[in-house]
Fold:
Amino acid sequence: MTELILSKYGELTLKGLNKRRFEDALVRDIKFRLAPYGGFEIERAQSALTVTPAEGADIDGMYDEMRRVFGLSAVGRAAVCEKTMEAVSEAAREYIPQFLMGKKTFKVESKRSDKSFPLKSPQISAEVGGVILDAMAHMGMPVKVNVEDPDVTVRVEIRDGHAYVSAGQERGAGGMPAGSSGRGMALLSGGIDSPVAVYMMARRGMAIECVHFESFPYTSELARRKVLELARLLCGYTGRMRVHVISVTRIQEELRKHTEEDYFTLLLRRSMMRLSCRAARNAGCGALITGESLGQVASQTLEAITVTNAAASLPVLRPCVGMDKDEIITVSRKIGTFETSILPYEDCCTVFTPAHPKTRPEPEKVLAQEAKLDMAALENEAMSAVMRYDIVSGTVIETLEGVPEKDYGAILAEKGEQK
Ligand code: ATP
Ligand code: MG
Structure:
């Protein structure tokens, strides 16, 4: 008997999308992400994907990773066997008892997509149910059948190639496969909202890179580490992450010297938008992503967003825009970034914060303030010293400082994939 991972990607997700492209992106992502756990084979079978680990591979690690792959609606482990009733019964007898330990009730659900199989689904369920009842009784751990509300649902699937027997199937991570919806450059701060924004857009199938702005020595090395840790946690969903760190120290100092205090945050945020667009275009990203939520702080009123948005030359996606802080925190806890986000390190946006930031800025006045400086020169300077960090997930996390582009390609090539 061979144990494998049986995952499904549900027909609904495929509507309106090119099925082939969707599947290819899914397979590419799975191959990349499971590579650190050992060898395996992937097979596609009617809206299902099976991953069969090679001898000695870490199936637990693979399964854990599969639970976080976007584009899968369900994942479970299964025993695979020949398409005969004898083999199915044998697999159920051997494989299912471990899932019923300490449980009282179960039911069997059967599905046959191969209609030439001699038994119909209800007959398969009845027969396999009987086999399981006998096996558990024989082991001194009797269980009962309960079709209404069972503790465990056992599934038998007769597909084209093989039969599968499983229990304990879980919901998958949902969404769409990594890279099936283009690339986005996320503005990642050390806060609660932007990691949630990354997760939400990654779940919609975007491949994501991040840009982080710091203001050393006003912000610390620890603040940068915190952001890299957030990126590392997000890697659990994206599989990989590149973080571009851009210093805005000079820009902030010059803004403070030459412009009115009340406009400081807005002007800084406009500059961040322009710098992010440049980083995005360099990285082949077609959109920016931020964690902004309407009305949450002074810089997120509709008027302030209008002013900062005007500085961006790419679409800005704001998946948290309509969410309450409570809702954002709930997602943040679910994805495991909350505890890191609340570590109390400074952010460049909180350095030199004006006492009375403009909540209803007038665009002409903002532009007049901005014209007092040579922003283009300052931004060119900032772009000439971008630090890059690459995080490639698996059990081992590699963090490389300021590596040139080609090294990143080499890391991916080593992991079996080109960028
Ligand atoms: P967050 O919790 O994500 O930090 P916030 O509520 O603190 O959001 P702001 O500080 O106004 O709100 O930031 C709004 C958005 O701007 C953030 O969600 C993030 O996308 C981006 N941003 C803010 N600071 C930085 C930074 N230092 N580096 C990169 N992006 C930033
Ligand atoms: Mg913030």
Residues 183 and 207 are 5 Å apart (CA to CA). The chain has a mean pLDDT of 89. The first strand starts at residue 2 and ends at 8. The first helix runs from residue 19 to 34.
